[in-house]
Amino acid sequence: MAAAAAAVAASTQRPLALLVYGATGFTGKYVCEYLAKTALTSSSMPWGIAGRNKLKLEELVRSLEAKGLSPPSLLLLADNRDPASLEAAAAQTRLLLNCTGPYRFLGEEVIKACLRSRTDCIDLCGEPEFMDRMLLLYHEEAKEKKVLLLSACAFDSVPADLGTIFAQRVFLSRGGAALSSIESFLSISTGGKGLHGHATTFEAAVHGFGSIRDLLNVRRELKRKYPYNDSRTVGPPLKARNGPYFESRMSRYAFKFPGSDASVVKASQRSLLLSGLVPSASSLPRYAAYFTVPSLWWAAVVTVVGSVFAFLAQRSWGRSLLLSHPSLFTLGAFTHEGPTEEQLAATRFSMTFIATGYHSSSSSVSTSSSAAEGREGGREGGSTPDRTERGDGKKAAASTTTPLLPAAPCDKILITRVTGPEPGYVATPIIFVELARCLLAQRPSLPPSLQGGVYTPGAIFYSQPEMLFERLEKAGVRFEVVGDT
Predict the structure, then answer these.
(1) Nearest 10 degrees: CA dihedral of 200, 204, 210, 213?
(2) Distances (CA, A) of 399 to 235, 375, 390, 405, 427
(3) 178-189 and 286-293: which strand pairing?
(4) What pLDDT is recorded for position 10?
């Protein structure tokens, strides 16, 4: 802990608290604008901007000043093609906010620069292959150097990651004895203006779907390098569905969410188990993520567009076609111009969480963990059963009393919701910046096992999320309880 405190103290001597890298990109500009709007309430956190084009950086500063906003206190030149410039820029700040994507191509050099300069880094990444590869390659070095590297720190996938933690905490605080599973359902309301995004987001999705084989290979390596027991013993297995199907609980048609939410929640849970902050996977809920559309017509449209996208993204010539014509293959949803201010203002998101479990231990079924986990592993791909060590050094099955079987149906349901403004370019800057400020404030008090490494937000804020919840609420991203039965 003394070494961690020394590392934090050294970083506080730097001129900047926050540095936005990729500040002149489409999303980066929105991040800087939100940071400038709220800088007066965080005067103790001087911030700067960095990028490869000095003229564009200066233009960004002028645009902020023209709106009456506080400009950054430092402007730095840095380029992915010049590692020394990246390292020099990273060395000026306590925390680097990386807005440059796709991260599959542009993210690793930033990670390496932050490791060399011993600078914490967060990013907007929603690319599971990149996140898992960085964990595989750099987690041990980051732990040794006590550098925090966090991915998925915005709409991908804080609402899902922290929303799961919120639902879990409320469930247990309202008479729940054991939580079995959580399902999330994302709905987007566009106010009749249509769903719109920038082509860079689409590009990241294309390469993400095209790298599925790479992702599977990386995950096999991760399982070998960081083995852990992920067997879930509370309640029946969660049967995830691909869709489309009519979700009666939402009165909407649902699809399996193709983004990173499930991967990020899983990554946070893995980190909690490996760090020892959570003793057993049975203390964590199973999780499945969905997105919803309002009608059968839209379900059919999404099915057709999604099928074409998936087919093309798996082939190099198909990816080239998709990247050349983002508007064509998304029916105008993604363009190089991005959404207008009017479209952003009309759009909102809602993510509903349905948590199921048990009111009390009276619902428990007494059985051996080895038998129950064998059933769980057969149905959900669970890992090796947890066993106790006998005196002769051999493994013996441990007997337990816990909600284990479908014969003990869940008798408690909690519904929570996370809501906010347009997700990609309005909620994302809010979440990104407020998470950054909370991380700086809570950095010294993190557990020793989390003082350095490659993580997702849920692992870092699992034990003390209250400050982040409060800051997000004040900024317009709400966490609320909808129903409890």
Answers:
(1) 160
(2) 16, 15, 13, 15, 47
(3) parallel
(4) 57
Q: Tokens 């963990």 belong to which residue? A: 369
Mean pLDDT of 331-349: 95
Q: Phi/psi at 3 (nearest 5 deg)?
A: -65, -40
Say if CB 42 and CB 72 are below 8 A apart: no
- Grouping H, G, I as helix, E, B as strand and the rest as coil, residue 483 is strand
What are 388-401's pLDDT values in tens digits?
A: 333 333 333 333 44
pLDDT in tens, 64-95: 999 999 899 999 999 999 999 999 999 999 99
Characterize 124-153 residue by residue with b for buried, 16 or more Cβ atoms within 10 angstroms of its Cβ, and e for exposed. bbbbbbbbbbbbbbbbebbbebbbbbbbbb
Nearest to 425, CA basis, from 21, 70, 17, 25 = 25
User: Tokens representing 32?
Assistant: 């800087």
Return the sign of the alpha-carbon dihedral for residues 446, 447, 448, 451. negative
pLDDT at 42 (0 to 100): 59
Kindly give the interhelix angle for 428-442 and 26-37, rounded to the nearest 10 degrees.
60
| CA 483/CA 485 separation, integer angstroms | 7
Q: Using CA atoms, how far apart are residues 344 and 361, in angstroms rounded to an integer?
A: 47
By the 8 A CB rule, do 207 and 102 touch? yes
In DSSP notation, 122-169 reads: EE----HHHHHHHHHHHHHHHHHHT-EEE---BTTBHHHHHHHHHHHH
DSSP string, 13-41: TSSEEEEEETTTSHHHHHHHHHHHHTGGG
DSSP 8-state class, residue 448: G
Q: What is the pTM of this model?
A: 0.89
| Cβ(139)–Cβ(112) below 8 Å | no
